[in-house]
Write a structure and sequence with these properties.
Elements lengths: L1 H6 L35 H4 L7 H23 L11 E3 L3 E3 L1 E2 L5 E2 L3 H16 L17 H22 L1 H6 L3 H17 L5 H4 L3 H9 L6
Antiparallel strand pairs: 1-2, 3-4
InterPro entries: MOB_kinase_act_fam, MOB_kinase_act_sf
Protein name: Mob1/phocein
Keywords: Metal-binding, Zinc
Length: 218
């Protein structure tokens, strides 16, 4: 791993205990942070199209972001094991717990957490009472709350991949695709106020760089 990172022009940082920390700033390093599929702001493609129902737009994008983030996780999932990732975390200070139907918070390894998360979202997306597909069916009154919950979970997946698996993303030459998906995701979340600051805090440095490059904008 060290040889790989040195080949990328990086070295492992050390924390206060003298032990090697996660390579948290790899995704912030040039040229990787600037690798995008397209140039320009994602703002133009996230605004609500004319004559489109807002809930339909939210539903469509939630479905798309879930599928694409799932694909990216699948590409690095062999490296995300209970041994390598004993907790669902983002760097050294952020650790997520899974809250089940009884509201009990449980610490899970990252792959188990992601499995619970994807199953939960998939069940929502296929529930006609939540994501209606039949003509004449209405979205539930709390649909926006459901969308926010989905986005809150998906951003945790981005956090985990950026902080713990970006080396694999680079080795697979996926950084331009992954950066673009994240920029699109964050732009959409900003447009419809779907995430709180605490949700995006672990990747705030990356968001600020993308804002400075006019890739995303509020």
């Amino acid at each position: 791993m060290n040889n790989l990172l040195n080949g990328l022009g990086l070295r492992a940082k050390k924390n206060g205990t003298g032990k090697k920390s996660q390579y948290q700033t790899l995704y912030l390093t040039s040229p990787y942070v600037n690798n995008m599929l397209v140039k320009g702001s994602f703002k133009t493609i996230v605004v609500l199209p004319k004559y489109v129902d807002p809930n339909e737009w939210l539903a469509y994008n939630a479905f798309e972001f879930f599928n694409y983030s799932n694909l990216f996780y699948g590409s690095i999932s062999d490296f995300c094991t209970p041994q390598n990732c004993p907790t669902m975390s983002g760097g050294l200070v952020m650790e997520y717990t899974w809250t089940d139907a009884t509201r009990k918070a449980t610490k899970l390894s990252a792959p188990v957490y992601v499995d619970c998360m994807t199953t939960w979202i998939q069940n929502l997306l296929t529930d006609e009472n939540v994501f209606p597909t039949k003509a004449g069916s209405d979205f539930p009154p709390d649909f926006l709350t459901v969308i926010k919950s989905i986005f809150r979970e998906l951003v945790r997946l981005f956090v985990h991949i950026y902080h713990h698996h970006y080396t694999q993303v680079l080795c697979l030459y996926e950084e331009a695709h992954f950066n673009s998906l994240f920029a699109h995701f964050i732009s959409f979340a900003m447009e419809f106020d779907l995430l709180d600051k605490k949700d995006t805090a672990p990747l705030q440095d990356l968001i600020e760089i993308m804002e400075g490059n006019n890739i995303i904008s509020a």
